[in-house]
Design brief:
The complex is a heterotrimer of chains A (344), B (337) and C (361). Helix content of chain A is 26%, strand content 25%. Chain A is α+β, with helices and mostly antiparallel strands. In chain A, strand 10 and strand 11 form a beta hairpin. Chain A starts with a helix and ends in a 5-residue tail after the last helix. Chain B folds into 2 domains: 238 residues, Aminopeptidase; 81 residues, Beta Barrel (Elongation Factor Tu (Ef-tu), domain 3), CATH 2.40.30.40. Classes of the chains: A alpha+beta (344), B alpha+beta (337), C alpha+beta (361).
Chain lengths: 344, 337, 361
């Protein structure tokens, strides 16, 4: 299963090599040209159609993770986060370090040894460390380096009711959707550029330069987004819910969706009976933030698949939502072929 | 000018929803400009060509059209509307305010009971549009709809109090300048920008497209003349303000000096402005392409981002005067480098 | 202008002049003359752009293709400082900060106010005798401080305007073990690294055009690098900045070793191949280096350079520095020179093919 391979691959921001390789293989058969740029973005397009509009579809390859910043004399590794991670989820997790995927664990003082008050305090990222079993600094230095990237050691698994669990669904799910959409759009008369971007989690760094190079007429960003349909969250604060279809972006902290694109997405979904929701959470930013401000401005929209426990070592999503998102992307692009670019 | 300001101030136009402001401005300036167009970000670009042959320089004047606002995130079973902010909206200032949606629906903003009011956040607040339940509310508004403050502009002597002086005051300055300036030695691109309040966005793409030799933003700025105000040399009624710097831009010294010279030569009262927090379109413009020398003419304004922003009529008149005179002089020193 | 065409004895002397000159973000003029003179000595062409960035070009000595690849070296020459916000009665100046200034370092600091002419001033605060008991235990707030230049209100208003910039005044001093101290080592030390690299290159052949850029407005948001990179459109951009060196009271995990050589950054804002090349070359030609993990890209010119236009392969080389953003920053001349050698060695080794491969992932 492609999502399993994508999810289990190691691709902390700026070290997206494994995901890029999987995607390159998948896209070989269905696209005309594949290239990379200096930031590591993977850009694939269908056959070139002279004079036709350029549509950029974008999903990011990178995931949040950690980086080794210091090796203590006793051989444990200090680290910082790459991208934003809730530090409270780190303790008691298994990780893999560097190119050789050295296994390690993020431990903490046993509960038996703690004072009652200690249990109430959060464990800060500065106080945590990775244990690779090394007996001292010298022995640790044989297997890891300062600057090594670290990812969570999480296995992909299918769960009941068409659900899946795994790491890095943000945004491997988007990558999967984009691959599946390209398979169906290979013969489109539009110029479709699939951009698998890098470094989204550290400030949406990759997508902007790709957009500058492509200079598309329209961009659609495919993301995973927070689903807050869990106990103890006030319904009013639900951003999206799992299983209710892909979410269409109205606005987030980084951009206001182009109104024409947003309306077109809604009407296409309605026309083809694709369930959808509107993304209500306005926090966070996506690649669209950079793309829409490129050059003279690029009309941009976003759709996202709701995932629970995003930005943690493991998240849950619904394959129904994924399939509906593929359908929505394909139908949306087809609508451009038929009716032209959406206007305000 | 007061009538133009009234129309602009009272009209709905949160970031990303500037279309009504665009229409008003288009109507006001038609006949006074050579070209007029809109771009994908929703900027309105009006061009006044130079008087003879080749222009001395290409000057971009930017005034943002958008205002801060609220955006619907959830409608509950009883028809109350939960919202988030568009731009810098204070929960405290929002309590009890009237707001208006694009379709004319009116609501008021209030908060859940709270013990410590200083902990008030927007997520504990709601808009009440008088709906009986969810179903009837959904007929009037839907998720993603935006609302703005709803207030008439009123004059107290020569001071105007109203919503969205930030930055309809700047728009009015630009509109009046267009009517007054006549032919100049420069090609002047008047850009009424979108989405300034959410990150100086419209000005950025417009500046890229126009690639001007110099940029001048027209916006409002805070004052330091209210009780216990933080140190700031700008006073309401003290004249137009020429910006030195804010959080988004250090104004190009040559542009700044040029504006000062012009003000002094024409006896236009001015003050020098340093704004500690906040930015303006010049922040985007000056970083475009290889860098565009930029300056800012500001209209002093008290109580920014409240529904009762106060400006002084003569500060606006002086701002128009300064902008007009500045555009009428050749900006050659910046051209074609 | 008497500084024009000045010749310096050695890099320490250049650094002394650069360090002592004023150049707060937005008004870098006084440093500009010194920096462009120094760069001009090794470059084929020097220009200043509309922003104030100094761009010195040293052309490839071996040209294999029509257009040689371009390498940009960037060190910022602006400094943190103060800005006059109001002229008070009796001529005292109120001010706010430009860039990351720690207000606790200000009381009793000598400064230069860059008015119509430069004025020496002192940052004053309420004297201890008139303070209420216990007041001396609190940090003095920025609002309570003022600059005293000894002029009356009328005189002050004649020579000083709101918006005039203020730089710290500090003589450059040589310490033991080839360490030096002064203000604005951040990032004039980086500028000297570039000078050293250009000097080394004058004795080597290279196949790339080298754009040595002294950037402005880094301290207020890497603005100079943003526009100069757009103008130059380099294939590779190397930012040279400072990083925290070991000092009392700070954990070793947050610092690098003073005198331990250049800190080569690894992280998202550094191209993986450039990182590897710098490490490999350091080993090959025996130049001391250390590795600095920087998981979050922000705060240096490399951040701006990397995402310009279609993207630029970027790297970050840092000089260990103590007491950053005070007027007594300490750096090691050895680190500065070794970093210059490293960059020259890198430039001499790369060619068109190397640049092309940076796009192949």
């Amino acid at each position: 299963m492609l999502l399993k391979r994508l999810s289990e691959a190691f691709a902390v921001s700026s070290r997206e090599d494994e995901v890029r390789e999987i995607l390159r293989q998948e896209l070989k058969e269905v696209t005309n040209e594949i290239r990379t740029d200096v930031l590591g973005n993977l850009i694939a397009n269908n056959k070139f159609n002279e004079g036709m509009p350029k549509v950029m579809l974008c999903a990011h390859m990178d995931e949040i993770g950690l980086m080794v910043t210091y090796i203590e004399d006793n051989g444990v590794l200090r680290f910082e986060s790459v991208g934003s991670i809730d530090q409270r989820v780190l303790v008691s997790k298994a990780v893999r370090i560097g190119k050789n995927k050295v296994p390690g664990v993020i431990g903490a003082k046993a509960i038996h040894l703690q004072e009652p008050d200690e249990r109430k305090k959060i464990l800060k990222i500065r106080d945590l460390y990775i244990d690779v079993g090394a007996k001292d600094k010298k022995s640790a230095e044989k297997i890891v380096n300062i600057g090594d990237y670290v990812t969570f050691d999480t296995h992909f698994q299918e769960l009941p009711g068409d659900h899946v669990k795994g790491k890095a669904f943000d945004d491997r799910i988007g990558c999967l959707i984009l691959v599946e959409a390209m398979k169906r759009l290979r013969d489109s008369d539009l110029n479709i550029y699939a951009v698998f971007s890098t470094q989204e989690e550290v400030g949406t760094r990759g997508a902007g330069v790709a957009a500058y190079a492509i200079d598309p007429d329209l961009a659609l960003v495919i993301e995973a987004t927070t689903a807050s349909d869990v106990p103890s969250v006030d319904k009013a604060l639900y951003s999206t819910a799992v299983g209710k279809g892909p979410a269409i972006t109205v606005m987030d902290r980084s951009f206001i969706a182009h109104q024409g694109i947003r309306e077109r997405l809604e009407s296409v979904a309605t026309e083809h009976g694709i369930p959808y929701q509107l993304r209500q959470l306005l926090g966070g930013g996506t690649d669209a933030g950079k793309i829409h401000l490129t050059r003279e401005g690029i009309p941009s929209g976003g759709i996202s698949v709701p995932c629970r426990y995003i930005h943690s070592p493991v998240s849950i999503a619904s394959m129904d939502d994924v399939n509906n998102a593929v359908e929505l992307v394909v139908r949306f692009v087809e609508s451009i072929e038929q009716k032209g670019l959406p206007r305000i | 000018m007061k009538e133009v300001l009234r129309k602009l101030s009272e009209t709905y136009g949160p970031s990303g929803h500037e279309y009504r402001i665009r229409e008003i401005i288009k109507e006001e300036i038609s006949g006074f400009v050579d070209e007029i167009r809109e771009d994908t970000m929703g900027n309105l670009i009006a061009v006044k060509r130079a008087s003879r042959g080749k222009a001395e320089a290409k000057v971009m004047v930017a005034a943002h059209m958008d205002e801060i606002g609220l955006i619907v995130t959830h409608i509950d079973d009883n028809g109350f509307i939960r919202f988030s902010n568009i731009g810098g909206v204070s929960p405290f200032i929002s309590i009890g305010q009237r707001v208006i949606f694009s379709n004319g629906a009116i609501g008021t903003v209030y908060h859940e009971p709270i013990e410590d009011i200083s902990k008030l956040k927007l997520e504990n607040m709601y808009i009440d549009i008088g709906a009986q339940d969810k179903e009837s509310a959904m007929k009037i508004v839907k998720i993603g709809d935006a609302a703005g403050f709803h207030r008439p502009l009123e004059w107290v002597g020569e001071r105007g109090i109203g919503k969205s002086m930030d930055n309809r005051a700047g728009c009015a300055v630009a509109v009046e300048t267009i009517k007054k300036v006549g032919r100049t030695p420069n090609d002047v691109y008047f850009v009424f920008t979108s989405q300034e309040e959410v990150g100086l966005r419209g000005a950025r793409t417009a500046a890229y497209g126009i690639a001007p030799d110099v940029g001048i933003a027209v916006d409002v700025t805070s004052t330091g003349d209210t009780p216990e105000a933080k140190t700031m040399a700008v006073k309401l009624g003290g004249g137009t303000a020429i910006k030195v710097r804010d959080a988004s831009v250090i104004c190009n010294p040559l542009v700044r000096e040029r504006l000062i010279e012009i003000a002094e030569a024409n006896g236009i009262p001015y003050q020098l402005e340093i704004l500690e927090r906040g930015g303006t379109d010049a922040g985007s413009i000056h970083l475009t392409r290889e860098g565009i020398p930029s300056g800012v003419i500001s209209v002093p304004c008290r109580y920014i981002h409240s529904p009762s922003e106060m400006i002084d009529y003569y500060d606006m008149v002086n701002s128009i005067e300064l902008l007009t005179k500045a555009l009428q002089s050749p900006f050659k020193m910046f051209a074609g480098s | 202008m008497e500084l024009r065409r000045r010749d310096f004895m050695d890099f320490k002397e250049v650094l002394k002049h650069l360090s002592e000159a004023g150049g707060v973000s937005g008004q870098e003029g006084p440093v500009r003359y010194i920096a462009s003179d120094a760069l001009g000595k090794y470059a084929d062409d020097v220009r200043v752009d509309t922003f104030g960035n100094i761009v010195a070009l040293k052309r490839a000595t071996i040209q294999r293709t029509n257009e040689s690849p371009r390498v940009m070296l960037a060190a910022h020459y602006d400094e943190i400082g103060l800005i006059v916000t109001k002229i008070e009665e009796r001529g005292f100046l109120r001010f706010s900060t430009v860039g990351g200034v720690d207000p606790r370092t200000l009381p009793g600091q000598e400064v230069v106010v860059q008015g119509r002419e430069p004025f020496v001033g002192i940052i004053g605060a309420k004297p201890p005798h008139v303070q209420s008991p216990g007041e001396s235990k609190n940090v003095i707030k920025l609002e309570e401080l003022f600059i005293d230049i000894g002029l009356s209100e009328d005189e002050a208003k004649k020579f000083i305007k709101v918006g005039d910039l203020v730089n710290f005044k500090r003589d450059f001093v040589e310490l033991s073990d080839n360490m030096v101290a002064g203000k604005s080592m951040d990032d004039r030390a980086g500028l000297v690294v570039i000078l050293k690299a250009l000097k080394e290159l004058s004795m080597l052949n290279h196949q790339v055009d080298v754009y040595a850029v002294a950037t402005v407005q880094e301290e207020v948001g890497v603005r100079g690098a943003t526009v100069s990179t757009y103008g130059i459109t380099p294939d590779i951009g190397i930012a040279i900045d400072v990083t925290h060196g070991h000092m009392e009271g700070v954990s070793k995990r947050d610092t690098v070793q003073m005198g331990g050589g250049s800190a080569i950054s690894i992280g998202p804002h550094v191209h993986p191949k450039l990182f590897q090349s710098f490490v490999d070359i350091s080993r090959e030609v025996n130049i001391p280096y250390q590795i600095e993990a920087s998981p979050t890209p922000a705060g240096t010119d490399a951040f701006a350079i990397q995402i310009t236009r279609e993207g630029v392969a970027s790297a970050l080389i840092s000089i260990p520095l103590r007491y950053m953003h005070t007027s007594v920053e300490v750096a090691s001349m050895d680190d500065i020179k070794e970093a210059g050698r490293l960059i020259a060695a890198f430039i001499a080794r790369i060619d068109q093919q190397y640049v092309e491969e940076l796009k192949c992932f």
